[in-house]
Write a structure and sequence with these properties.
Its main location: membrane. The chain has about 30 residues and is mainly α. About 95% of the residues lie in helices and about 0% in strands. The protein has one domain. The termini are far apart.
């Protein structure tokens, strides 16, 4: 159904955002 697709998209977006922020924080600490 459409709800499942919406939840999967939301989960992927949140996971991608968290990963990006985590990588930015890591690179910021390394430099």
């Amino acid at each position: 159904s459409i709800v499942i697709i919406l939840w999967v998209t939301l989960a992927a977006f949140v996971g991608f955002l968290f990963l990006t922020l985590n990588l930015m924080s890591l690179t910021g600490k390394l430099t």
